[in-house]
């Protein structure tokens, strides 16, 4: 391997979706040099690419940071596993592969909060630019991008029945969740190519591997940002057993996600002074919002036993069933091994007072106690429902300067009583769907949380018992103005030149859906802003010369 240079034009910390896209866009200019840094390894682990392999990637230190939350008072003191990708492709290598943009109102709210250029009409072209949609180019979708979007390869009578029951409960069947208003029920579109996971590494790095001006470094842990005279001059990186300073001639770009990015800033002395002093870090730049504003989607996994219909519980419960699944995937790239973790989706309102859909369902023809444990021995389906716009806010904070010391993750689930009310309404709505005529032939019986939970207080207790993360942490380096903001609308860190953030941490408020593709949009926006800014700088001397003449 060629030795590292001392400096590059752009240093990118984190090779998740945002980092991979930025490396692609910035290195398209052969006159600049780009170094992409990833703490994990190559994405050559076979289970990354077989869709069902997420079961073997989550909780696996080869592909996952293996974080845990602090014990959550709102979840009866339970701590939750908190997976984050630690491999090329980042969380796109271990996630549910669902292609989802959210709602137009999400982005309009960002713009209205003082972030010009982030409204739906501004970001829709960015989503389209990145996209390679199976149906081709249209007013809503793009076909020339790298981010492959396909229909799922599956057929389950139980899912069709749930879709019919949702329609009977007022949730209409629709074809596409990604037009700006996702209310309705449909099958999720997924980031796969012919039944194989399509992660950000394949999409944005594979085709440019020969660019001489791009270096992708794995096994490289970013310790902290190097600061000098109010500017980010580079990154301190630990690679091959030693720490070294790598300098950025133009910009340092942090793309390490809602957990990793605030931790890097805090180790650099950028954050809330009280925390920095507590862990023995000198205050280089006070930014109280670093690590604050953590938001996540808490899912309530309701399980229903059924009869007279196939579910994955029975199929995967026999050797013949497992062999059949393997052969179907081997020869057709279809069947259960090609399934995303969730197949059918629905967006609904928890109550008539909601202005738009504030609940998202992930429906699966299977059930289990929790991910990583065996499927139940009885036939069942899971209707997982999450509050898309929670009021509860949490935080991320380093415990020490040691990268190996996992940060303290405190989501504070259900700490706001308004979230408890939405949770209770969500359980009631799910019960109405399960009781609709379209599902009657399969005799659904509620297994979790169970029919004994009826009163408002009971349902609050049920939410605390069955609630778990759906792995969508955002918001810990909030975009905006004011004392709690970390970056401006250009994604530049307030008060520090040459430092920009492009990942889920900059979301002022969480999007109404899965978060991977919105992160790619954020990175596409960042690339545009960076390139436009450099072009303006390059033209400035010319303009001055013309004016002088």
Describe the overall structure.
It is a single chain. It is globular and about 70 Å long. The chain contains 15 helices and 24 strands. About 55% of the residues are buried. A hairpin with a 2-residue loop joins strand 8 and strand 9 (about 195). The chain folds into two domains: about 1-150 and about 190-295 and about 400-405 and about 475-549, FAD/NAD(P)-binding domain (3-Layer(bba) Sandwich), CATH 3.50.50.60; about 155-180 and about 300-385 and about 410-465, Cholesterol Oxidase, domain 2 (2-Layer Sandwich). It starts with 6 loop residues before the first strand and ends with a helix. With about 550 residues, the chain is α/β, with parallel strands linked by helices.
Q: What is the overall number of helices?
A: 15
Question: Architecture of the largest domain, according to CATH?
Answer: 3-Layer(bba) Sandwich
CATH topology of the largest domain: FAD/NAD(P)-binding domain
Q: What separation lies between the terminal Cα atoms?
A: 51 Å
Largest pleated sheet: 7 strands, mixed
Structural class: alpha/beta
What is the total domain count? 2
Report the portion of residues in β strands.
15-25%
Average the pLDDT over all residues and give the rounded result. Answer: 95
CATH superfamily of the largest domain: FAD/NAD(P)-binding domain
Number of strands: 24
């Amino acid at each position: 391997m060629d030795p590292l240079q001392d400096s590059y034009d752009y240093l990118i910390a984190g090779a998740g979706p945002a980092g991979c896209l930025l490396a692609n866009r910035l290195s398209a200019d052969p006159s600049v040099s780009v170094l992409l840094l990833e703490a994990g390894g190559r994405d050559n682990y076979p289970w990354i690419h077989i869709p069902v392999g997420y079961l073997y990637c989550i909780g696996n230190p080869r592909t996952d940071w293996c974080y845990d939350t602090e014990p959550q008072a709102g979840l009866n003191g339970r701590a939750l596993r908190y997976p984050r990708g630690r491999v090329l492709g980042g969380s796109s290598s271990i996630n549910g592969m669902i292609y989802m943009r959210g709602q137009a109102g999400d982005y309009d709210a960002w713009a209205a909060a003082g972030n010009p250029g982030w409204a739906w009409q501004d970001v829709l072209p960015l989503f389209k630019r990145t996209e390679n949609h199976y149906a081709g180019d249209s007013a809503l979708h793009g076909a020339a991008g790298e981010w492959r979007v396909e229909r799922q390869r599956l057929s389950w009578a139980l899912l069709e029945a749930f879709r019919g029951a949702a329609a009977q409960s007022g949730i209409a069947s629709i074809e596409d969740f990604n037009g700006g208003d996702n209310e309705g029920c449909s099958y999720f579109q997924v980031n796969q190519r012919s039944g194989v996971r399509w992660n950000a590494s394949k999409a944005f790095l594979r085709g440019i591997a020969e660019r001489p001006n791009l270096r992708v470094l794995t096994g490289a842990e970013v310790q902290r940002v190097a600061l000098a005279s109010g500017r980010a001059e580079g990154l301190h990186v630990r690679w091959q057993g030693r720490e070294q300073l790598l300098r950025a001639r133009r910009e340092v770009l942090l793309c390490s996600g809602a957990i990793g990015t605030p931790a890097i800033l805090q180790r650099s002395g950028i954050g809330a002074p009280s925390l920095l002093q507590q862990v023995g870090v000198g205050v280089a730049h006070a930014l109280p919002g670093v690590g604050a504003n953590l938001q996540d989607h808490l899912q309530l996994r309701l399980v229903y036993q059924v009869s007279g219909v196939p579910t994955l519980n029975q199929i995967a419960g026999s050797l013949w069933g497992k062999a059949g699944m393997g052969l179907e995937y081997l020869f057709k790239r279809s069947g259960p091994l090609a399934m995303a973790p969730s197949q059918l989706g629905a967006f609904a309102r928890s109550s008539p007072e909601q202005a738009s859909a504030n609940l998202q369902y992930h429906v699966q023809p299977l059930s289990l106690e929790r991910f990583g444990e065996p499927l139940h021995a009885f036939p069942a389906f899971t209707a997982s429902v999450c509050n898309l716009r929670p009021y509860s806010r949490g935080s991320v904070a380093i415990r020490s300067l040691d990268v190996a010391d996992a940060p303290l993750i405190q989501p504070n689930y259900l700490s706001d009583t308004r979230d408890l009310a939405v949770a209770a309404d969500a359980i009631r709505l799910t019960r109405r769907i399960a009781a609709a005529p379209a599902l009657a032939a399969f005799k659904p019986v509620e297994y979790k949380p169970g029919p004994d939970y009826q009163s408002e207080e009971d349902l609050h207790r049920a939410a605390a018992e069955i609630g778990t993360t759906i792995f969508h942490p955002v918001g810990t380096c909030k975009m905006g103005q004011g004392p709690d903001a970390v970056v401006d609308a250009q994604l530049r860190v307030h008060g520090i030149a040459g430092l920009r953030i492009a990942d889920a941490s900059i979301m002022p408020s969480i999007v109404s859906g899965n978060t991977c593709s919105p992160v790619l949009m954020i990175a596409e926006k960042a690339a545009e802003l960076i390139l436009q800014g450099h072009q303006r700088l390059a033209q400035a001397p010319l303009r001055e010369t013309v004016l002088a003449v």
